[in-house]
Amino acid sequence: MRTQSRVELSVDTLYRLLKQENLGDPHPLFTGGERYYSPRFKQESDAQFHRELDRAGLSTPQGVAEDFLDLLAVIQRGAVEYYGWLQDTEGPYSVLVAASGRSAALAQRVDEVVTFEWIDASRALEAFVFRLPNVAAARGEAISVRSADYGKPVRRDVGGFSMSDPHYATPQEARRLAALMKAPRVGGGKLYTAKRDHRGKRTRAKDWISFIDLADGRWALYTTEGRGEKSINAVPGTPQLIARRLSELHASIG
After folding, report:
1. Cα dihedral 19, 21, 24, 27 in deg (nearest 10)
2. Rounded to whole angstroms, what are the CA distances from 174 to 145, 218, 219?
3. pTM tops 0.70, yes or no
4. Nearest to residue 163, comparing CAs of 201, 190, 139, 138?
5. Which InterPro entries match (predicted)?
């Protein structure tokens, strides 16, 4: 029998559970500094660990609920991964969808709390895209600019996201892209995909897709390469476009 539809755990408890059950190092989504537990407070820490498992409905006479350990194994060792660091009007959060065979699971982290749930493996990518901030795609013509035309990037921080300004941008498309990158944002994110082979070796796609949410909608940003030239693309960020691009990135992993 599967565990309740959703399970919430603190990152601290998750770290301890992964170590206790030999499920490997935490996924990058859960990292953010080494967790150290002083031996002086071991008894108190153990009690808190077990209280949290009890509250989550994960404690059984045999130990931690087997179904939840199966879910964690998919999260930690999935053959297919889609994940990203996101931000909406309420703040930052991150999402991971992992699939292995006919099983798939989703983890969403907000601050120091992670929510886990099983999902339909046949709709794993759709489930991931559904967790992006609820912002409609922008309206406008797609922009494609050769990297050489956009110029040497200068890093800047806007709303918690590092973006680039053009050093020079004389072509019209480059000016449009520059104006888009400078526009005030209500959110955004950076999305990745990875896979594991039968030996458990994990490989992330070389590229990724970013998106920025403006007052008038979402733009997706990604690079492409052709004829030896790299281009920067900005297109209205529909769910279908983002899913297609992530699927292409996943297929590109050797």
Report:
1. -80
2. 6, 19, 15
3. yes
4. 190
5. EspG (IPR025734)
